Amino acid sequence: MTATDSDPALAVIAARADAGAADTEEIRDLAAAAGLTVAGEVTQTRKEDPALCLGEGKVEELAAVVASEGAGVVVFDNRLGPYQTYNLGNELPEGVEVKDRFRLILDIFGQRAQTKKAQLQVELAELRYELPRVEAKVSLARRDERPGFMGLGEYDESREQDIKARISRIRDELQRIEEDEEHRREQRRESGFDLVALAGYTNAGKSTLLRRLAADLDVDENDDLHPDLDTTAESRDKLFTTLGTTTRRADMDRRNVLVTDTVGFVSDLPHWLVESFKSTLDAVYRADLVLLVVDVSEPVEDIRQKLVTSHDTLYERNEAPIVTVLNKVDKVPEEEVERKREALAALAPDPVAVSGKEGTDVDTLLGRIETDLPPYDRERLVLPMNDEAMSLVSWIHDHAYVRDVDYADEVVVDFEARPSIVERARAKASDLPVPAES
C-alpha cells in the first residue's frame, strides 16, 4: 500500500482466536508497558491463515483502520511467522511496523534491562527471535523479492552467521555469570541463610510484597560484592517492572532468610524466550522455598490460568516446595477471597492470603515461610571456657538461631541451624584446643 503519515507511538491491536471472542486485555497492557498508545483494534475468530494470520478481508479492514488512525505500529496478539510478517507488511500502509506479542515483550525487556545479565539475556532472546527472520530474508532474496522486506527489515548476507556467532558468545558469558551466581548462593547458604524466591505472573505484586517482607531494604550493603542485583525493587502497577533479580533480607526472628524477586511470568511464551532468561529463573529453581504470588482480585478463571502458566514454567526444574500467596486482598471482600480459595484448591492447596500493599496478614506469611522451609537441626555443644570458644559462640550467633548459652565452668550453647551449619559448628568445636589439666 502507499505511504501514509503515521505516528510510531500509535498502535492498532490485531488479535485472532480459534474460537470465542479474542481477549485483548493483556496485549493492550503489554502495548502500554512498551510505551505505545492503542488507537484501535481489529479482531477475528477463525482458524489461522497460513499467509496472513487473519483472513484477507480482515487484513484489508486492518489496513483501513491503521490508515484512518495514522498508526505507525500494528501489534498482533499472536505468534507471527517470518513470511506472515512479510506478507502483512505488503498489505499495510508503507512504513507501518508489524510486531507480534513476542517482539513486543522483547521491546519491553530491552527498555527495562539495567544489569549486565539482564541486557545479555534480552540480546540473546532478540537474536533468537531474529534468526528465523534472517533465514526468511535469505530465501526471499534468492527469489529476487523486492528490497526492504517490509516488516522483516533490510537484507544483509552475512547477518545469519553473525547472529549465530553472537549467540554462542552470549551463552558462554551467561554461563560464567550463572556459575558466579551459584557460587554466591552457596556462600549465602554457608553463611546460614535460607533462600526464598518470589515467583508468579507479571504484575501480581511481587515487588510490593518483597518490600513488605524485607527487614532491610539495603541488605546488600556493598554493591561491589553483588553486581548482579538491582539496587531497588520497584513497586509500580506496570508489567515487567522487575527484569533482573532483587534480593532482600526478610524480617524474621528465628531464621536468616533472603528473599529474591524475579521477572514475572507471562502466558504463551515460546521455549526459546523462557530459555533466554534461564539464569534469572535459576533464582527460583534453586531456592529453598518458592512463594507463588497471584492477584486475588482478578477473575477466578484468570487466576487459574496464571497458576497453570506458572506451574508449567516451574515444573521441569524446580525442586523446592511451593506456597501460593493470594495477594491484594485489600481489593476484594473477604467472602470473595474465601470463594476463590475454595475454587483454586486443586492448584493452590492451603494458600496464604495477604495484602502486600496494606501489610494484611504478612505476619502469617512469615510464619508459613518458617514452617515450610527445610527444617533446622538442633544441636547442643559443650565448649571449653577460652577465647577460641568465645569466637565460636560468636560465629554460631551469626549463622544460627541460638536458643540458650550457659556460661559456667564450660560454655554450653544450644542452637538450631541448617544441617550444613550444624556440621561446620561441630567441626569447629572439635578443632578447639583442649584446656590443660591443672
From TrEMBL:
Domain Hflx-type G: 194-377
Gene Ontology molecular function, alphabetical: GTP binding; GTPase activity; metal ion binding
Needed cofactors: Mg(2+)
Entry keyword set: Coiled coil, Cytoplasm, GTP-binding, Magnesium, Metal-binding, Nucleotide-binding
Organism per entry: Halomarina salina
Listed InterPro entries: G_HFLX_dom, GTP-bd, GTP-bd_M, GTPase_HflX, GTPase_HflX_N, GTPase_HflX_N_sf, P-loop_NTPase
Domain of life the protein comes from: Archaea
One term under GO cellular component: cytoplasm
Residues the record lists as binding GTP: 200-207, 261-264, 327-330, 355-357
Residues annotated to bind Mg(2+): S207, T242
Recorded coiled-coil stretches: 110-190
Family, similarity comment: Belongs to the TRAFAC class OBG-HflX-like GTPase superfamily. HflX GTPase family.
Its biological purpose: GTPase that associates with the 50S ribosomal subunit and may have a role during protein synthesis or ribosome biogenesis.
Location(s), subcellular: Cytoplasm
Protein name: GTPase HflX
Chief location: cytoplasm
Pfam families: GTP-bdg_M, GTP-bdg_N, MMR_HSR1
Assembly and oligomerization: Monomer. Associates with the 50S ribosomal subunit.
Gene3D superfamilies, alphabetized: 6.10.250.2860, GTPase HflX, N-terminal domain, P-loop containing nucleotide triphosphate hydrolases
